[in-house]
Amino acid sequence: MLKPAVFLDRDGVLNQELGYIRHVEDLVLMPNVAKAVRSLNDRQIFCCLASNQAGAARGYYSLEHIHALTERLQYLLDTEAGAHLDAVFCCNTLSPPEGGVDPELSYWSTWRKPNTGMLVAAAWKHDLDLSRSYMVGDKATDVDLAHNAGCKGVLVTSGYGEKVLSGDYQHATKPDRVAKDLAEAVDWILSQIPANF
C-alpha cells in the first residue's frame, strides 16, 4: 500500500543557510530540527531529503564533499534526537547556462527543482503516495516542486523563506501552509495525516 511522505529541503530548513558549505563542520542544524524529524520517525512517516546541491557542478568542491555533508547531517540528527532520514535524493547537476562547469555534472536534469524527478524517483522506489505527501522548503522552487508533483507545499520562513514571501527572492508563490520553521511545519503536517494512514 502506498504511504505518505514528508520531503525536506536541506539548507535553511534542516541546517543553517550558509550558501555553499565548503567545510563539513560548518553544517549546523537549525534549532529543534532533530526533534521535528524524530516526531516524523515516531509516527513512522517516511522522511526524505530532496535537495538541489549544485556545488560540485559549479566546481566549488567534489561530489564526495556533498556525500560527507549528508553523512554529517544524518549524524547530527541521530546524535541530537535519535532521528534519521529514511532516504536522500539530491540533484547534483546544473546546466551550463545556469552555471554548471564540471563536464560530468553540467546538464539539464528532470531532478532539479522545481522539476519532479527526485520525488517521482522516491515514490517509485519507496511506494509513496505523492498526493498525500508534503514538501517543506524555504524557496519558491520547493513549493513549485510540491505542486508540480501533486504534493502540498509548506514554506518555512527560516532560510530564504521571508525573502520569498516579501517578493525579494525568486518569485511569488502560494504555499499550502507557511511555518516559521521545520518544527512548526511538522506539527501542522502531523495534524493532517491520520494516525492509521
UniProtKB/TrEMBL annotation:
Q: Which cofactor does it need?
A: Zn(2+); Mg(2+)
The record's EC number reads: 3.1.3.-
| Sites marked Contributes to substrate recognition | 112
The record's annotation in CDD domains points to: HAD_HisB-N
Q: Where does it live in the cell?
A: Cytoplasm
| Cellular compartments per GO CC | cytoplasm
Q: Which UniProt keywords apply?
A: Carbohydrate metabolism, Cytoplasm, Hydrolase, Magnesium, Metal-binding, Zinc
Q: Where does Zn(2+) bind?
A: 91
What name appears for this protein in its UniProt entry?
D,D-heptose 1,7-bisphosphate phosphatase
User: What Pfam families does the record tag this protein with?
Assistant: Hydrolase_like
Q: Which family does it belong to?
A: Belongs to the gmhB family.
Which BP terms does GO give this entry? carbohydrate metabolic process
Per the Swiss-Prot or TrEMBL record, the active site comprises 9, 11
A Gene Ontology molecular function term for this protein is: phosphatase activity
Output the SUPFAM superfamilies linked to this UniProt entry.
HAD-like (SSF56784)
Q: What domain of life?
A: Bacteria
Residues the record lists as binding Mg(2+): 9, 11, 138-139
**Source species:** Tumidithrix elongata BACA0141
Please indicate which residues carry the site annotation Stabilizes the phosphoryl group.
51, 113
Write out the residues that bind substrate.
9-11, 17-20, 51-54, 112-113, 139
- Write down the InterPro entries for this protein, in alphabetical order: HAD-like_sf, HAD-SF_hydro_IIIA, HAD_sf, Heptose_bisP_phosphatase, Histidinol-phos
